[in-house]
Structures are given as C-alpha cells and as structure tokens.
Design brief:
Helix 2 packs parallel to helix 3. By secondary structure, this protein is of the alpha/beta class. It starts with a helix and ends in a 17-residue tail after the last strand. It has a domain at about 30-120: Nucleotidyltransferase, domain 5 (2-Layer Sandwich). A five-stranded mixed beta sheet has the order 3-2-1-4-5, covered by helices on one side. It is globular and about 70 Å long. A hairpin with a 4-residue loop joins strand 2 and strand 3. Helix content is about 25%, strand content about 25%. It has helices at about 1-10, 65-80, 100-110, and strands spanning about 25-30, 35-45, 50-55, 90-95, 115-120.
Amino acid sequence: MAQKAAAKKGAATRMKRRERKNIERGCAHIQSTFNNTIVTITDVQGNAVSWASAGGLGFRGSRKSTPFAAQSAAETAAKAAMEHGMKSVEVYVKGPGSGRESAIRALQATGLEVNMIKDVTPIPHNGCRPPKRRRV
C-alpha cells in the first residue's frame, strides 16, 4: 500500500497545453458602468474566449471610469481574441458608463469587423428604488 502511494507521488504530471481554437465569428459584450468597463469576447455559443477590464489593466479610482481605460480594455481583449483567429464580432453594449463608444471604436481600430451593435441595457419596469440624489 505504501509503495503504491509512493509510485503515484513520484509520477510526473504533464500539464496539458491549451489549444488555440480557430474561431472566426464571435460576440463582444461591453459592460460599462459608472465605475468600470468590462469587455468580454465570446464565441457564438457564448463561451468566453478573452476578457479584460479597466481595473484589471491597472487603472485605479476615477481613472477606471474614463473612456481611455475602456479603450485600453477593448484593445487588450480584441488582441487576445484575434490570437484565436477571430475576425468579426457582434457588439452587445450594456450599461450607462462613459466608455461605451470608445470601446466600440477600439474594437474596430484593432482590426475586428463589427457586424452589429446592439444595446442590451436592462431597463426596469419600475423595479428597485434608485439611489438618493447627491448633495455636493
């Protein structure tokens, strides 16, 4: 019994290398809030291929919510998706943030063909009570 465990422990485990999928068409989901912008690029079925966020790229505090931070996040996600062979995307934008347009422009500038832009911001039919007005 002890020999069996020792043999198992000594066996070298080989890490499986991740294969590069060849995905030509996909979807870019841009979630833009007042504080951050998250860009996720998926295949047509919805499986994530690449993602990036303004906060993940090192932007902190009020710089996270800028259009430049959203542009950087979109460029990073697009380059990672293009390594998988992606050529064209359908863009779904969600949220009221300032990085919406700049993220879409950044996707186009990196060489991805944008076939469609759709706003999928959830609109409540008088759901939750909104936050109180700011007094500055």
